């Protein structure tokens, strides 16, 4: 047999009897011709029997990297790099527990590295750990929709990444929980998706009849004793849909359940896109309020309320056969990729203005491809009239100012505002007053734009300030035991002065 640069051999789950005939013959040939064999770890039950059966094997391991690893995310990459470096000096064998392609991240990284370095590889299959583990647990991984993740890869995830990688409503196997330190990192990662007291099973030495065992414990106890070893696999049973509260899929399940006929929620079943419109606006404004108050706990809650509106509309549309939640994700993901060619493509953009211009150009191209006559579009098109009126006013002004329609100085804006105030005073009918009041608001929004002030935000801030001051007056009246209507104009002015001094 002629060895390729790197031959990757699966050693099986543990027992020497599970080593395949092909794997044994490859190792036997290596012992005969002196090809070095590098084991990912020597802590595996086949090592001693192989030493006895093939005493001429030239062997080494990467256990030293495990002992020195300070960062789980780079451990397997270090092993892959080391194997490739060794292979440049001549053909080698890299031996791993189980099957090389099942739960072996180091092999996946190695194959990628080998391709980049032009090193040929060959795979020798082995019995994986999955078969004996599932035998002990009495599980069919296919029927159970089993997830499989390597413990080191799981430990390397950031806390905010775990919920996107693990689906707690289906069974999970965490392979190679090889020591207490790694078990602790796995426990912390799983804590993002599972209750601390969730019952889990640690399967040890599966396939080795004299040593195999299944230990059940709460998740929080996983690292409290030295349960884990190099032949440990953690099994986490699925949680109920209503328990996985950090999972996006749970919100979809809840909205479907609420809308289900006939045993859903009577109120939710009656809702339509139109009846929910007011709630979309309300929840949006509550998000804005939390942002302006810089209240992060409130913001998290209000964003959830707004997200519920998205899921409810998606569920109504799904039931009516219009679109599904997947269509929403597809549209926004495709749009973000398409409109950020400087990130996901080859277009260059060195500053925010270039990004903004690219965005507008892409939007214009999209409209043209959709059949719009972009040459005849007004610059005031596509401003949602359902937006707050001050927002619409400032957006109109922003767009027309870019075309040169503007007052040259701020003094002229003040003069125009004074003119509109005078016209309101001169108005003699309710219709005229209504029109002139609108003109005042519009020119006030223009003045705000000239001063680079967000008119809508400024008015919301003024509203909050008024609320604080009036509530102060209410408190004073309550302390004095008086009704607000009992105060004279002079007293109101005095109270308001106190409120202004006491509030910011």
Description:
The structure is a single chain. It is built from 21 helices and 10 strands. The chain is α/β, with parallel strands linked by helices and 504 residues long. The chain has 6 domains: 6-128, Cobalt-precorrin-4 Transmethylase, domain 1; 131-236, Methyltransferase, Cobalt-precorrin-4 Transmethylase, Domain 2 (2-Layer Sandwich); 248-321, Helix Hairpins (Orthogonal Bundle), CATH 1.10.287; 343-371; 389-453, Helix Hairpins, CATH 1.10.287; 457-502, no CATH class. Helix 4 crosses helix 5, helix 12 (277-293) packs antiparallel against helix 13 and helix 18 (410-426) packs antiparallel against helix 19. The longest helix has 26 residues, at 455-480. It is elongated. It starts with 5 loop residues before the first strand and ends with a helix. The model has no long low-confidence stretch (mean pLDDT 91).
How would the blueprint of this fold be written?
Blueprint (H helix, E strand, L loop, with lengths): L5 E5 L10 H13 L3 E3 L7 H7 L5 E3 L1 H6 L3 H16 L4 E5 L8 H13 L3 E4 L5 H8 L9 E4 H6 L2 H7 L6 E4 L4 H11 L8 E6 L8 E6 L13 E5 L11 H12 L6 H5 L6 H17 L2 H24 L5 H14 L2 H4 L7 H18 L19 H14 L7 H17 L3 H21 L4 H26 L8 H14 L2
Parallel strand pairs: 1-4, 1-5, 2-3, 2-4, 6-7
Antiparallel strand pairs: 7-10, 8-9, 8-10
CATH class designation of the largest domain: Alpha Beta
**SS content category:** alpha/beta
* CATH topology tier name of the largest domain: Cobalt-precorrin-4 Transmethylase, domain 1
- Architecture (CATH level 2) name of the largest domain: 3-Layer(aba) Sandwich
**How many E strands?**
10
Distance between the termini: 85 Å
**Main sheet specs:** 5 strands, parallel
Strand content: 5-15%
Summarize the amount of helix as a percent range.
40-55%
Cross-sheet strand order for the largest sheet:
3-2-4-1-5
Low-confidence stretches: none
CATH superfamily of the largest domain: Tetrapyrrole methylase, N-terminal domain
List the domain count as a whole number.
Answer: 6
Gross morphology is elongated
**Radius of gyration from the CA trace?**
34 Å
What is the average of the pLDDT values?
91
Number of helices: 21
